[in-house]
Amino acid sequence: MKAVTYSTYAGPETHELREIPIPEPGEGQVRIRVTAAGLNPWDWHIYRGDPWLARFSFGLRSPGTRVVGADAAGEVDAVGPGVEGFAVGDRVFGFLGFGGCADFAVAESSKIARTPGGATDAEAAAVPIAAITALGGLEDGGGCEGKRVLVIGASGGVGHMAVQIARVLGASRVVAVCSGANAAMVSLLGADRVIDYTREDVRECGEVFDVVYDTVGTTSVPRLRRILARDGVYLAAGGLGGGPVLGPAWAIFRAKLSGPFARRRVAVVGTEPSTENLGRVAAWIEAGRVRPVIAATYPLERTAEAFARLEAQHVAGKLVVQVA
After folding, report:
1. 22-55 pLDDT per residue, tens
2. Domains of the chain
3. What was the pLDDT predicted at 51?
4. Given this model, what pLDDT does residue 272 score?
5. Burial track 142-180 (b if 16+ CB lie within 10 A, e otherwise)
6. Has this prediction a pTM greater than 0.90?
7. What pLDDT is recorded for position 242?
8. How far, rounded to the nearest angstrom, does the alpha carbon of residue 88 sit from its chain's CA centroid?
9. Residue 78 phi/psi, 5° resolution?
10. CB within 8 A of 219, min separation 6: which ones?
11. Of 173, 177, 178, which is closest to residue 209 (Cα–Cα)?
């Protein structure tokens, strides 16, 4: 089968499209004939080994030979021992960890769900990490029912899902922060107000929020104190920059350390996809309450180009690789 692989910590220019053996599903796994793979910052932080701390999990000197792509959608092609609830021919989507940018991939059956009716495989592949990161964070932070929610980085993969899921979870008001170029898109997704960070300082917005969901981490918790209610929560979902040692984790550590000084609660976002929570999101997509925005699709042979664009960190919505 064809697959996009890497064997050293480096940029996408080192990825190779080559023939490798078709994987076999093990205990509790299914094999998917992949149609589409969704790309995420998670992918490029892992294949670059950036931050360095990631290498303790994936190999200090070398990651071995891996296939890129953590999220995927397609059709179940084979079922391993002990799998219940899925059969050959089912359309599914979910989190693989690795392997999505290939003709076939193996997934844990506990981390996939049936593709929502009416959704394309490209749309389904764009969902797992982004939607579950948004859902898990908002619920772990105490939910959104009747609350005023601010989403910083609202046009990105996780951010555009957070705007919609906050609304589904009952937020009374959702305010989004992104560039003016993406304001129309975010408004259509359900934001009551969009703040263009290139023209307006969010701290001067004149509002107070019960929940601040931050995907970029460029403004510290103490500096956001005036717009975060005393009993509110700051949800640290990642960050830009941070250097080679901690990378995006730096913004999260900084938030946790500064929370007590700002006298505000800080929660770290970190939920893993499961059949249950993917199924919840799938139901919302099928009902038209949530929709993934796809900025562009790329053929398998242009995966490196897609990752280079993703690493520039200015994608509105998600990038998807069309495998088949």
Report:
1. 999 999 999 999 999 999 998 988 898 876 566 6
2. 2-127+292-322 (3.90.180.10), 130-268 (3.40.50.720)
3. 64
4. 85
5. bebeebbbbbbbbbbbbbbbbbbbbbbbebebbbbbbbe
6. yes
7. 46
8. 27
9. -155, 150
10. 152, 202, 203
11. 173
Range scoring the smallest mean pLDDT among 135-139, 210-214, 268-272, 320-324? 268-272
The predicted-structure confidence for 96-153, as pLDDT tens digits, reads as follows 999 999 999 999 999 999 999 999 999 999 999 999 999 999 998 889 999 999 999 9
Q: Which amino acid is at 85?
A: G
Give the 3-state DSSP-derived string for the chain, with helices as H, strands as E and coil as C: CEEEEECCCCCHHHCEEEECCCCCCCCCEEEEEEEEEECCHHHHHHHHCCCHHHHHHHCCCCCCCEECCCEEEEEEEEECCCCCCCCCCCEEEEECCCCCCECEEEEEHHHEEECCCCCCHHHHHCCHHHHHHHHHHHHHCCCCCCCEEEEECCCCHHHHHHHHHHHHCCCCEEEEEECHHHHHHHHHCCCCEEEECCCCCHHHCCCCEEEEEECCCCCCHHHHHHHEEEEEEEEECCCCCCHHHHCCHHHHHHHHHHHHHHCCEEEECCCCCCHHHHHHHHHHHHCCCCCCCEEEEEEHHHHHHHHHHHHCCCCCCEEEEECC
